[in-house]
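Reply to dn_fold:

You asked what the input looked like. This is it:
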Amino acid sequence: MKASVVVLAAVAILGAAVYASSGLRAAPASEPVESEGGLLRLPPAAPAGESVLYGHVRSLALKGDRFEMQFDPAWWLNGETASRAMLEDTGSSDVPNDYYIVEEGHRLLTYLVPETARVTVLTRGASATTEIQVSELARIVSGENPEHRELLEPNAGFWILVDYRYPSPVLSLDQQYQP
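and this is what came back:
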């Protein structure tokens, strides 16, 4: 029995290593799945080896064949978590629009962003979001608007998806609407 458990564990580790090195990404599950005992198994927030962070892009500059981004992380909170954090910070638990952003500090973290990263910004018009190139976002962050887009919230934060395998590139940047 012990030998079969060791073999199964070794196969699982080997399979995970092959998957991780293949560059494949699992499609996120949209619905929870019932597991043994009637418990719900929820999908991961991001595939293994990747992380999603919220914050503000402070600068984005081309360095060689990729961009370097200075990112100011923050916590986007909602629900009871937002209410309790708001109470601790302000003395009131009233959370307008059911979100509260906690800015614990303004330490800038450097992330590498390849030119191929997917970027969406909030725009006015029929489509609430517009996909743009990283180079255009760099110009928007620096105060320009090269395509004269009707940006809904030029200073709104972004959700970034980071792949933590070396060299830890940002895979996507999606601007967050803030009512």
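Strands lie at 33-34, 40-41, 50-63, 66-78, 99-102, 109-114, 118-122, 129-132, 158-163, 170-175.
Hope that clears it up.
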